[in-house]
């Protein structure tokens, strides 16, 4: 795989991961309200989650729904272009947004990809099970060998 290519040409990225506690699907504009509500309710919890400790996201002051929508559109475009893959984490019982998973190129040549995930504060018990399920999924369904799990 060329250094400037995140996934091999022709790679068909998985679009679903399901467990009995959550399922993942590509994040998009259709999730705007629920995604916005999920992370806005849990800013400090997310900022204390491995991968988000640098304090850059989420913004302490939040964002408007319109700003969040623009962010979701950017993530959806990245997915379409194979530049990065962002998944919403949904409760299988009611499809409510309970978190997010990001699979993006690493800023370091040491890694092929960086994986980050967060869950709402009221679902914090799912933090480690989600990270572990995604780690297994990457091994079985994704093309990377060197994955930075941000200390997980």
Structure write-up:
Keywords: Transferase. The chain is an alpha+beta fold and 152 residues long. It has one domain (17-148): Gcn5-related N-acetyltransferase (GNAT) (Aminopeptidase, 3-Layer(aba) Sandwich), CATH 3.40.630. 30% of the residues lie in helices and 19% in strands. The protein has a 6-stranded mixed sheet with strand order 1-2-3-4-5-6, with helices on both faces. The longest helix is centred in the middle third of the chain and has 17 residues, at 65-81. The two termini are 26 Å apart. 27% of the residues are buried. The mean pLDDT is 94.
Mean pLDDT: 94
Distance, first to last CA: 26 Å
Tell me about the largest β-sheet: 6 strands, mixed
Percentage of residues in helical conformation: 25-40%
Number of domains: 1
Low-confidence stretches: none
CATH architecture tag = 3-Layer(aba) Sandwich
CATH topology tier name: Aminopeptidase
Let me know the CATH homologous superfamily: Gcn5-related N-acetyltransferase (GNAT)
Largest sheet, spatial ordering of strands: 1-2-3-4-5-6
What percent strand?
A: 15-25%
Silhouette: globular
Task: Give Rg in angstroms.
Answer: 15 Å
Number of helices: 4
Oligomer: single chain
The first-level CATH class is given as Alpha Beta
In sequence order, what are the helices and strands, one letter per element?
Answer: EEHHHEEEHE
Task: Supply the helix-strand structural class.
Answer: alpha+beta
Number of DSSP E strands = 6
């Amino acid at each position: 795989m060329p250094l400037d290519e995140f996934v091999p040409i022709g790679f068909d990225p998985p679009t679903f991961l399901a467990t009995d506690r959550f399922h993942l699907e590509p994040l998009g504009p259709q999730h705007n309200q629920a995604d916005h509500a999920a992370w806005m309710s849990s800013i400090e919890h997310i900022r204390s989650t491995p991968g988000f400790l640098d304090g850059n996201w989420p913004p302490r002051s939040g964002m408007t729904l319109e700003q969040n929508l623009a962010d979701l559109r950017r993530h959806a475009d990245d997915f379409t272009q194979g530049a990065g893959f962002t998944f919403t984490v949904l409760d299988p019982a009611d499809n409510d947004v309970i978190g997010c998973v990001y699979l993006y190129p690493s800023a370091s040549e040491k890694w092929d990809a960086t994986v980050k995930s967060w869950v709402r504060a009221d679902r914090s018990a799912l933090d480690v099970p989600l990270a572990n399920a995604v780690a297994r999924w990457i091994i079985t369904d994704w093309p990377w060998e060197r994955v930075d799990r941000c200390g997980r």
